[in-house]
Design brief:
Elements: H1 2-32, H2 41-64, H3 74-96
Helix pairs in contact: 1-2, 1-3, 2-3
Length: 97
């Protein structure tokens, strides 16, 4: 039963982190193509908050990964790693029931 609870909690946290990665990706595209302006305080506040939440998670991944030029694959690696963790915990939860 404890693994099922742990699976539910981790699944919820994984969903939040994946959503933050998607928000960061969309905002970076909108900023790059000048659809939104960083001089807008609301946009700047959201961008700063999302980066403050994701940078501690993405920085170690960026250190390990090779340089790929302008494309940053660390969010993709993060999502894949979190999904693997979710699968392992789900299998543990099912095995203990």
């Amino acid at each position: 039963m404890i693994f099922y609870t742990l699976f539910e909690i981790v699944g919820y946290l994984v969903s939040i982190i994946v959503m933050l990665v998607i928000v960061q990706f969309v905002m970076s595209l909108l900023i790059s193509f000048n659809v939104v302006n960083m001089s807008n305080q609301f946009v700047s506040a959201i961008w700063t908050a999302v980066n403050a939440l994701l940078d501690p998670i993405l920085t170690p991944i960026r250190r390990i990964m090779p340089q790929t030029g302008a494309i940053d694959f660390s969010p993709l690696v993060l999502i894949i790693g979190l999904e693997i963790l979710r699968i392992v915990l789900r299998n543990l939860a099912v095995a203990t029931m």
